[in-house]
Amino acid sequence: MRPKKAQQLFIKFFILALAALLSYSIAYGSFRLKDDNLIHLKFYDVGQGDSIFIKTVHGSYILVDGGPDSRVLNFIVKDIKPGPCYLDLVVLTHPHSDHLYGLNEVLKYCRVGVVLTTEIKAETKVFGKWEELLREATSSGRVKEVSLARSNNDIQLDGILFDVLWPLNESVSEVENENLGSIVFLFKYGDFEALFTGDAEMEVYDEISPDALSDYEIEVLKVPHHGSSDSLNKEFFEKLGPEVSIISVGRNNKYRHPSLSVISFFKANGSTVLRTDEDGTIEVVTDGKGYEVSVER
């Protein structure tokens, strides 16, 4: 959705004093998501990895990836209601440990409605543990359902559409590079749209039909693969034209993410670029019409 000039949506960055207060509240555990009939999307600062938490207007909880360690649990317990942890939907975009490790801890601590994942397997201890925990949780009823992501397998929850764009209907279990099987999905609530990309690399966007996004104007993009240049499909993202581009990345990481060429590209195309390594946890709040963005620091 692009608003008319007189009704332009705005991105609201907190003044320094309020940003400091927010940082203080998170640090000392007093900050919680409000029951305010709004959608909250929090791009957690989990270091070199991805983890996004979503609260719906009806109080359902969604977690997309779990980051590279157990710190995601510290975030979650502050953002859910007191009591036993229950997540309505957990998405594992692909089985690399910087997206998966924290989900292993989540499965130990939380009950889950639906786990959305792919058939891709990884020859790692972290993924082996994931398979073990998922089997145990499914057999015990702690996880109600496991669903494979396909472009014809969309999910609707509390008025939100999760439109899976990749993988397509065929299996991606044989891909050599797990990033090429990473789930890509559109998040739509009212007139607000965000695109979640996991670590999907350049070739993936050549396979996604232009018609799949022709009716949408993306407000928020989760920049793929921590801002790596191998995921920058310029033609695709120029057409997409996100207003805000969020990079989940660790400070001083060994991969030198994000690439300066990626940052320059999105800025040159009029997008506001935010980074968890510099801005801390980033929160987007929307009522399905307008939206606001705040940063931790």
Automatic annotation (TrEMBL):
Signal peptide: none annotated. Residues 48-251 form the Metallo-beta-lactamase domain. It holds the Pfam family Lactamase_B. InterPro entries: ComA-like_MBL, Competence_DNA_uptake, Metallo-B-lactamas, RibonucZ/Hydroxyglut_hydro. Gene3D superfamilies: Ribonuclease Z/Hydroxyacylglutathione hydrolase-like. Transmembrane segments: none annotated. PANTHER family: DNA INTERNALIZATION/COMPETENCE PROTEIN COMEC/REC2, RECOMBINATION PROTEIN 2. This is Metallo-beta-lactamase domain-containing protein. It comes from candidate division WWE3 bacterium RIFCSPLOWO2_01_FULL_41_18.
